[in-house]
Amino acid sequence: MSEISNGNDDTPSERTAIKKSVLNTAPQLTSRWYYPRRYVVALMAFLGFCNVYAMRVNLSVAIVAMTTNKTVTNETGTYVLPAEYDWSTDVQGVILSSFFYGYILTQLPGGYLAAAYGGKRLFGVGIAVTSLFTLLTPLFTKYSLYLLVAARVVEGLFEGVTYPAMHAMWSRWAPPLERSKLAMISISGCYIGTVVALPTSGFLADYLGWPSIFYFSGAIAYGWSVLWFLYIKDKPQNDTRISEDELCYIRSTLRCQYPYMKVYSPIPWKRMLLSYPVWAIVIAHFSENWGFYTLLTELPTFMKDVFGYDLHKSGLLIALPYLAMGIFVVLGGYLADRLRSRGMLSTSRVRKLFNCTGFVLQTIFLLIAAHSTSPLTLVVCLTAAVGFGGFAWSGFGVNHLDIAPPYASILMGISNTFATLPGMFSPVVTGHLVQHKTQEEWQVVFYISSAIYLVGAIFYGIFASGEEQSWAHIESGFFGDDDSGKTDDLPFGEASCD
Fold first, then answer.
1. Which domain covers residue 223, as residue numbers?
2. What confidence score (pLDDT) does residue 46 get?
3. Residue 15 has what pLDDT?
4. N or C: which end of the chain has fewer CB atoms below 10 A?
């Protein structure tokens, strides 16, 4: 296996000096009208994740409308129409979790395919196919409960590739000291999408009927996928709209960080899976998703059971925590990169600071929320509890790119496989715990999430790292890149950056 140089013959000390200079030097805009293409990618990814989560959470609102009696008033009087579907809480838990049965299966394959073939097509196809099944959901539901469950499983299969695919994109597009910021801009779409989808879905269900929720979100997502395929490229060097300055900046910072490459290297599975920093990411990702998925799928039901909020009102209130998280995700990414670029803290300390602070604050506010008797106090506490998860994402959420950039999409596939388990089990556990729909039963749900957050903070604080691991450095490079000698198509290949 041949080793490919980046074309530099600098000594190690010279390369260190160059690295410090290059990593902290962003290009000046060549035109006042030019907007860096890496931020265009981030914006499109943001909108893509908005659609991903809108299609994921729509059923959590629709199922309330589908299983609730409806009061109708006309000139002859007031009537109570029975619920369209008489599903028990256990059945509803299975329906809500069915998405994740498919989602978990494509995390590792998605990471492998993204590493080998690039993330653009995988991300676009995943969202496009999900949008088609979302459009067909009312038809499937009309004919069979089993068809509804099957459709959600298929949606999960195709959405499962989205996170690994975007990590593959950022391994080629994101300069090292902009990783947190760019990745968090895109990830914030998950929460802003939730913010928009929850109240919008409640409004659509009230005025146009629950099927309109799926028609609306599916159509918008399909339109986005068309734009994604037209305007986004897998690699900066393939983008005809990128400026020469920006292309040189991206490629020189990445090439500077990884001065030698091997291509077609075998994936170091054993060392990867025995790495404590990898498991720190896995445990943190699982912990964050347990609380997030529990609230994501169950909050509409909780607000109805405990406080009797109607669907439209609860949709507006439930959106607030995810608005806070969307803001904190972007803010956390900006602050994390600021601390690193100014040399105030090492990458390891930055990741631990943001992750553990986020988890501890989430634990505190969830415990307060568990004992809240006032709707206002509850909403404030849940907003803070979910919102501070945005800081945690600037810890574990970008850490894959720190410890093993060539295998970032595969690591995201591994961590998100485990982080999908909460989506499968938390709705089922909640369904069993809240048989009588009392506040005391819901308190237990919050206690479980708080304990998991705390365990995640401790484990990550002890074992996480922000440094590239030896097994990733030895096998460095991008799996699936061409070793034909044409460096122009390689992620860290030579650019004309004189």
1. 36-236+258-489
2. 97
3. 41
4. C
**pLDDT value of position 388:** 92
Q: For residue 392, what pLDDT is reported? A: 95
Q: Do residues 479 and 115 make contact, with C-beta atoms less than 8 angstroms apart?
A: yes
Q: Is the dihedral of CA 242, 245, 251, 257 positive or negative?
A: negative
Instruction: Give bridge partners of residue 74 from the DSSP assignment.
Output: 77
Give one DSSP letter per residue of 362-424, joined into a string. HHHHHHHHHT--SHHHHHHHHHHHHHTHHHHHTTHHHHHHHH-GGGHHHHHHHHHHHHHHHHH
Q: In terms of pTM, does the model score above 0.90?
A: no
Q: Is residue 10 part of a domain?
A: no
CA 325, CA 313: separation in Å to the nearest integer?
A: 20
Q: What is the pLDDT of residues 1-26, one digit of tens each?
A: 333 333 333 344 434 444 554 455 55
How crowded is residue 345: how many other Cβ atoms within 10 Å of its Cβ? Answer: 15
* Regions of the chain where pLDDT drops below 70: 1-34, 69, 71-75, 77-80, 255-265, 296-297, 299-300, 303, 306-318, 473-498
Q: How many domains does the chain have?
A: 1
The C-alpha atoms of residue 149 and residue 141 are separated, in whole angstroms, by 9
The encoded tokens of residue 115 equal 């590493």
Of 237, 118, 262, 236, residue with least CA distance to 174: 236
Domain holding 177: CATH number? Answer: 1.20.1250.20
Task: Give the closest residue to 143 by CA, choosing from 151, 153, 155, 154.
Answer: 151
Instruction: Say how far apart CA 238 and CA 490 lie, in whole Å.
Output: 11
Give the C-alpha separation, 387 to 465, whole Å. Answer: 24
**Is residue 47 assigned to a domain?**
yes
Q: Cα dihedral sign for 313, 314, 317, 323? A: negative
In a domain, 494, yes or no: no
pLDDT at site 135: 96
Write phi, then psi, for 70 (nearest 5 degrees).
Answer: -120, 130
Q: How many residues does the chain have?
A: 498
Q: Give me the pLDDT at residue 80, please.
A: 66
3 state SS of 485: coil
Q: Is 69 helix (H, G, I), strand (E, B) or coil?
A: coil
CB-based burial, 259-280: b 16+ in 10 Å, e otherwise:
bebbbebebbeeebeebebbbb
